[in-house]
Amino acid sequence: MVSAGVQVVAAETIDDIRIEGLQRVSAGAIFAVLPIDIGDPVDSRQIADASRAIFATGNFQNIDIGIDAGVLIINLHERPSISEINIDGNKAIETEALLEGLENQGMAEGRVFQRATLEGMRRELARQYGAQGRYDAEITTDIIAKPRNRVAVDIFIDEGSVAKIKQINIIGNEVYDDKHLLDLMELKDRGFFNGFKGRKKYAREKLSGDLETINDYYLNRGYIQFAMRSTQVSVGPTKDSVYITINVDEGEQFKVNKVQLAGDVKDQADTLERVFLMSEGKTFSQSLVTRTEELMKRIMGNEGYAFAEVSSIPAVNAEDKTVDLTFFVDPGKRTYVRSIEFEGNYKTADEVLRREMRQMEGGLASTNLIELSRVRLERLGFFKQAKVETSEVPGADDLIDVRYEVEEQSSGSVSASVGFSQDVGLIFGADFQQNNFLGTGKQVGIQA
Fold first, then answer.
1. Of the residues 104, 194, 226, 295, which has the fewest C-beta atoms closer than 10 A?
2. Is 160 helix (H, G, I), strand (E, B) or coil?
3. Topology classification of domain 255-330
4. Is 221 left (phi over 0), alpha (psi -120 to 50) or beta?
């Protein structure tokens, strides 16, 4: 129950302001929002405005304001703060993920506790479990008072069971029948073995992935105007089953009319045109468009334009069902490598890695040379894998830093042997091989 008491007074000049009842909130926080200063003439209207301003902070459940002999007296009753949040019963979703969702709803340790937040908390938890198809999950809470105006929030969860898919309906498809499209999906509504594989269990993320798969399938086969009109997921009365309806608009199939370049291609027009993966008369494919963009970026990157952007601009001709494709090239500035750094080589010296570099510091950045350097690191045999990242130098649009991250592995071996000879009796042997001796990259072998 929240209340704000305001005394009805005639206008009176304020000589002093006194705040009472504060525990956690500082007086400075109140003065920062208080629309009244010492020396102001104040009546009931200004007091009501002050009460609303303080209440808007969300920190108080009771506010009483009055004037006594020129002193503005503000008596406050703070809302409790959350000292801890305990979650019990969750297995399908990790506690950290649940707490993150609650924090987004305004409930976290140290925050002000409000009863209204509990409903938001329940909705957030229901949302998270609903995304996994657990529509029958039940959440109960217990609020425990603690010393110093604090509370502990105990949350008990009965996760329930994952709803099974009873039926998947696809509406609007004519080119490809239901079976064809259903075979593309990970979620299934039939099939004995699919039940064992978990494919009949509903999950929002899986459905999103299936919708994207269907969308890509059409776009890669010329249906550039394909649209997913709507998706409905209906939960059964017992919350243990779902019915999925997908509405699609296939549109018409389009072929490529012409492909051309635009923008600043930096004398690379012939090279760029050679990587066009589509030509006149071919069926449009979004995946080939994306791949062409990547190849063109790589070509520009080899010329030192590490931040080159290539974007495709399709012009759809609805009358003859063709597409004119334009690849626009924005090379940006030519880029140079400021520094090359290594991480993860705890045993191997930097100089061993640096001598494998084909991309040099201070040199023009080359996508091919940066990648070749990464491959050479892996071929050393000292590392399980090598990764590379490039980052723009802050404040400079023509410099990048290159960072190679490696994961070291054993590069040596030790073996022993025992034999017998009638002349000398038992024969013992040992073999020690180290391909990266003391991290120097040198090979050392000892046999005895």
1. 104
2. coil
3. Ubiquitin-like (UB roll) (3.10.20)
4. alpha
**Alpha-carbon gap, residue 432 to 444, rounded angstroms:** 8
DSSP letters of 172-206?
S--SS-HHHHHHH-S--S--HHHHHTTTTB--HHH
DSSP bridge pairs for 73: 18, 66
Within 8 A by CB and 6+ apart from 216, the residues are: 286, 287
CATH class (in words) of the domain with range 164-249: alpha beta
Q: Are 244 and 231 in contact (CB under 8 A)?
A: yes
- Structural class in CATH, domain 3-78: alpha beta
| Distances from the Cα of 282 to the Cα of 14, 167, 257, 259, 322, angstroms | 83, 37, 8, 11, 10
Does pLDDT of 131 surpass 50? Answer: yes
- 406 touches 377 (CB < 8 A): yes
Q: Please check the confidence at residue 3 and state whether its pLDDT lies above 90.
A: no
**Which DSSP state fits 100?**
H
Residue 363 corresponds to which amino acid? G
* Spatial contact of 151 and 141, defined as CB atoms under 8 Å apart: no
Average pLDDT over residues 2-27: 73
Contact 248, 226 (CB under 8 A): yes
pTM over 0.70? The answer is no
| Gap between the Cα atoms of 29 and 427, Å rounded | 86
- Sign of the alpha-carbon torsion through 121, 127, 128, 132: positive
Taking the C-alpha atoms of residue 323 and residue 225, their distance in angstroms, rounded to an integer, is 11
Fold that domain 336-408 belongs to in CATH: Ubiquitin-like (UB roll) (3.10.20)
Q: Under the phi-then-psi rule, with left for phi > 0, alpha for psi from -120 to 50, and beta for the rest, what region is 321?
A: left
Sign of CA dihedral 207, 211, 214, 216: negative
Residues sharing a CB contact under 8 Å with residue 116, sequence separation 6 or more, in sequence order: none
* CATH H-level superfamily of 81-158: membrane protein fhac (3.10.20.310)
Domains 3-78 and 336-408 share a fold: yes
Both tokens assigned to 376: 């050479």
Give tens-digit pLDDT for 27-77. Answer: 888 889 999 888 888 888 888 888 899 988 888 888 898 888 888 899 998
- Yes or no: say if 71 and 39 are a contact pair by the CB < 8 Å rule: no
pLDDT tens string 307-362: 899 999 999 999 999 999 999 999 999 999 999 999 999 999 999 999 999 999 99
